[in-house]
Every structure is written in structure tokens, then in C-alpha cells.
Design goal:
single chain; 158 residues; mainly alpha; 1 helix; 96% helix
């Protein structure tokens, strides 16, 4: 057994320069190759993740703006409908007012014409009554006058 330990010791002593060389190679490769490569990969991953993050943020912002524009568009459309309805109501009110004014004017003209016609009818009735009275007087005078000559002729009529 002692012989085995001795051989192992010799092998261990012989491998020390190789192990040292491997550690030295590892340290050199780590400094010269792996660290810069890791840094480049890290930057690449950060850039990729950053770009994806920015893209997601930009997409969310664009979506929010699209919703805002849609809401603003809907509000503007509703305001336009309200304004159009208000204009329609005011036009109907103006039309109704104009019709009412025309009715009142027509009624006033009608009353005026009826009053004028009633005055003319009264005047015509008065003229007619005057004419009738004068005609009645003429008739009665004519009848009285025609009765008088018969009485003068000598006869009494009974």
C-alpha cells in the first residue's frame, strides 16, 4: 500500500505543472475570451429585452392613444348629433312661431274683413231700410193719392 501512495504522490507531482497550466489557460481564456463574450452576450440580451420592452410600451401607448382618439371621435359624433338635434328643434320652433304669426295675422285680417263686412252689411241694411221706408211712403202716398181722386169723383166706397 505504501507503494501505491508513493506512485500516487509521484503522479500528483508530475500533474502539478499540467494543472497549473490548465488553471493559467483558464484564467487567460476567462479574461481574454469568456468575459468579453459574456459582456457582448449580456449587452445583446439587454438590447433585445430593452427593444422588446420598448416595443411593448410603444404598442401599449399606441393602443391607449387609439382608445383616446376613438373616445374623442365618439364624443365629437355625439356632440354633432346633439347640435344637429338642437338645430332641428330650433328650426321647428322658428317654423312653428312663423306659422303661429301667420295664423294670428290671418285671423286678424279675417276679423278685420268680418268687421268691415259687418259694417257694410249694417250700412246696406240701413240704406235698404231707408230705401224701403221711402218706397213704402211713396207707395202709401201713391195709394192715398189714388184713393183721393175716387172720393172726389163722387162716390163713397164702403
Amino acid at each position: 500500500m505504501g507503494d501505491i501512495f508513493r506512485q500516487l504522490g509521484e503522479l500528483f507531482v508530475q500533474t502539478i505543472p499540467t494543472v497549473g497550466f490548465v488553471f493559467l489557460l483558464f484564467a487567460i481564456l476567462d479574461r481574454v475570451f469568456f468575459r468579453p463574450l459574456g459582456a457582448v452576450l449580456k449587452k445583446r440580451e439587454d438590447a433585445t429585452q430593452g427593444a422588446l420592452g420598448r416595443a411593448r410600451a410603444d404598442a401599449a401607448t399606441a393602443e391607449a392613444k387609439a382608445r383616446e382618439y376613438e373616445e374623442a371621435f365618439q364624443a365629437a359624433r355625439q356632440e354633432l348629433y346633439r347640435q344637429r338635434e338642437a338645430d332641428h328643434r330650433s328650426a321647428l320652433a322658428e317654423r312653428e312661431a312663423a306659422l303661429q304669426k301667420a295664423r294670428q295675422h290671418a285671423e286678424a285680417l279675417l276679423r278685420e274683413a268680418q268687421a268691415k263686412l259687418a259694417g257694410e252689411v249694417a250700412m246696406v241694411k240701413a240704406d235698404l231700410e231707408t230705401a224701403c221706408r221711402s218706397l213704402a211712403q211713396q207707395i202709401s202716398h201713391t195709394l192715398v193719392a189714388s184713393d183721393s181722386p175716387n172720393d172726389k169723383a163722387g162716390g163713397v166706397r164702403s
